[in-house]
Amino acid sequence: MTELKALEGIKILDMTRVLAGPFCTMVLADLGAEVIKVEVPATGDDSRTFPPFKGDESAYFINFNRNKKSIVLDLKRDGDREKFLSIVGHMDVVVENFRPDTMEKMGLGFEELQKVNKKLIYASISGFGHYGPYKYKPGYDIIGQAMGGIMSITGWPDSPPTRTGTGIADILAGLFCCVGILSAIHARNLYGLGQKVDISITDSVIASMGTIFQKYLVEKRVPERTGNKYEFIAPCDSFRAKDGWFIIAVGNDKLWKDFCRAINREDLIADKRFENNVKRIENRDALKDIIEEWSTNYKKNEIVEVLEGNQVPAAPIMSVDQIAEDQHFVVAREMIQEVAHPIAGKMKICGSPIKMSVTNPSIRTASPLLGEHTEEIFKEYAHRRRKKG
């Protein structure tokens, strides 16, 4: 049977680079949209030079730009701007992550592009959005993490504010941009109107903080760094094993009793310090010492097996190499997949976390070479200017 694609027929002109924008368009491309990546001549997307490398090819770029086509245009040149506009007339979506007003200065802002294609969806990702006092501040992942609040709550009480181990601000912005684009496509189907989607990296981090902000908004209490423990549940934290670290998530009093039985410490059930969740939170330090007195005698996988066998939520803290060799993630969930790159050859990249029963996302092609599809795209789209009505 022919592969069915959720976004079959959706055409996206992708002017983004590095992470936030390419992550957004990667998700859309995996779902079946035709994504045409516009790159500057000679150098292309900055991330083509980012490590790690396989040979001379950036694995960073290959991962986030699979399933896309690449054309080169110098939008400072009149001729290339005309080519760009002729392609826009055929597109459903334009995505960019320049600083605000960059496209306007080239005569290619949302209002101008709508003159070419009135049903166009124009999506922009920037550090602080296209309006507001911080509009022109630079937008980098670490700035989004810093000013979005997540660094202030990440780490331990005695450690400095800490960025997350990945570019989470950029990735959140990319995901929110996907939601905005898909919503705008649906709205266009309903009302026949294109629109602008304005995504701020910092807004995306603030939105992801959820209940963290409620602590201040409701109680006027500034949340602090708490390490791995959950403020409102105990024991819900990381604990030391003989060979590493593991997680316990005891979310209610029944699980607490199950946990005590699992570790052969039924005496703790009657201990007034731990008789309910409120008491366990108050005495969490003493509780952690008791748990680690037991857990440091065993390996983390042994601990998890015992706890899961007693219906107590637990998990090992896994390293990247362990995940990359794990049968559940690699074989069953296909979160590591192989692609064949024309220069780098066969290599492994991350799969899509979206699983669908009919239109499942797929990795069909490796990332494009710089300008690989320029001639093909110009032949298909740029031979004439067309207004989409």
Written account of the structure:
There is one protein chain. This protein is an alpha/beta fold. It has 2 domains: 11-209 and 327-381, Rossmann fold (3-Layer(aba) Sandwich), CATH 3.40.50; 251-312, 2-Layer Sandwich (formyl-coa transferase, domain 3), CATH 3.30.1540.10. Helices cover 37% and strands 16% of the residues. The strands form 4 sheets. The chain has a 6-stranded parallel sheet with strand order 5-2-1-6-7-8, with helices on both faces. The longest helix is centred in the middle third of the chain and has 24 residues, at 168-191.
The gist of it:
The chain is an alpha/beta fold and 389 residues long. The protein has helices at 20-30, 59-64, 78-88, 102-105, 110-116, 141-147, 168-191, 201-208, 211-219, 253-262, 277-282, 284-295, 300-309, 320-324, 327-332, 374-381; strands spanning 11-14, 34-39, 53-54, 57-58, 68-72, 93-96, 121-126, 196-200, 236-241, 244-249, 314-316, 336-341, 345-350. It has two domains: 11-209 and 327-381, Rossmann fold; 251-312, formyl-coa transferase, domain 3.
